[in-house]
């Protein structure tokens, strides 16, 4: 069973995180919501408080298969300012593990140099933060071990893409049918 860590910072876009995570869980992926603060409760940009499963210090980086950054402001800024998280994301990427981000979240990956030479997407207005990437307006883009998504409207698509990559396209199709998602 694949294992995904989803990182939550104060000011995250709650639905971007939870919609993608929900799809993964329905597909049988083990997902851990991770607070980058010293408390399990994280309040998002729309004042919804989500309880994380663990703190950043509890992440088992060696056994994680994918590491996911939701967007939102100031959540994205807070993720990018978290040095232990950023160090580990670079290491995970260098080890060939999957990294994913949505909305403004890809700007963190860009700032870490993880998008150089890759196709990527993001929320409009953050294109210049995708350092070294070839920007595309696609809703969800996978290039190598990096998957990026444009924004909240693509959160389900991101979850389905990650499920297809971590398990199988057939599993993603089955989850898509079970949630009555007839888009694209």
Offer a quick outline of the entry.
By secondary structure, the chain is an alpha/beta fold.
Distance between the first and last residues' Cα: 27 Å
* Mean pLDDT across every amino acid position: 97
Helix-strand pattern: EHEEEEEHHEHEEEEHH
Give me the secondary-structure category: alpha/beta
What is the CATH C-level name? Alpha Beta
Low-confidence stretches: none
Largest sheet: 7 strands, mixed
Described by the principal axes of the CA atoms, the overall outline is globular
Bin the strand percentage: 15-25%
Indicate the radius of gyration in whole angstroms: 15 Å
Structural overview:
The structure is a single chain. With 184 residues, this protein is α/β, with parallel strands linked by helices. It has a single domain (3-178), classed as Rossmann fold, CATH 3.40.50. Helices cover 32% and strands 22% of the residues. It contains six helices and eleven strands. The strands form three sheets. A seven-stranded mixed β-sheet has the order 5-2-1-6-7-11-10. Strand 1, helix 1 (14-26) and strand 2 form a beta-alpha-beta unit. The protein starts with a strand and ends in a 6-residue tail after the last helix. The mean pLDDT is 97.
How would you summarize the topology of this molecule?
Layout: E1 3-8, H1 14-26, E2 30-35, E3 41-43, E4 49-51, E5 54-55, E6 66-69, H2 75-80, H3 83-94, E7 98-102, H4 106-111, E8 119-120, E9 134-135, E10 140-143, E11 146-149, H5 155-166, H6 169-178
Parallel strand pairs: 1-2, 1-6, 2-5, 6-7, 7-11, 8-9
Antiparallel strand pairs: 3-4, 10-11
């Amino acid at each position: 069973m694949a294992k995904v860590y989803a990182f939550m910072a104060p000011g995250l876009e709650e639905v971007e995180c939870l919609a993608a995570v929900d799809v993964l869980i329905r597909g049988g992926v083990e997902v851990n919501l991770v607070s980058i603060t010293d408390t399990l409760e994280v309040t998002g940009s729309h004042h919804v408080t989500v309880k994380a499963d663990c703190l950043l210090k509890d992440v088992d980086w060696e056994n994680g298969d994918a590491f996911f950054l939701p967007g939102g402001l100031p959540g994205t800024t807070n993720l990018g300012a978290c040095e232990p998280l950023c160090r580990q994301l670079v290491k995970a990427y260098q080890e060939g593990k999957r990294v994913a981000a949505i909305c403004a979240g890809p700007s963190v990956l860009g700032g870490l140099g993880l998008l150089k030479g890759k196709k990527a997407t993001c929320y409009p207005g953050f294109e210049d933060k995708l350092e070294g990437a070839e920007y595309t307006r696609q809703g969800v883009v996978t290039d190598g071990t990096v998957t990026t998504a444009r924004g909240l409207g693509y959160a389900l698509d991101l979850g389905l893409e990650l499920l297809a990559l971590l398990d199988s396209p057939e599993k993603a199709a089955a989850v898509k049918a079970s949630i009555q998602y007839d888009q694209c």
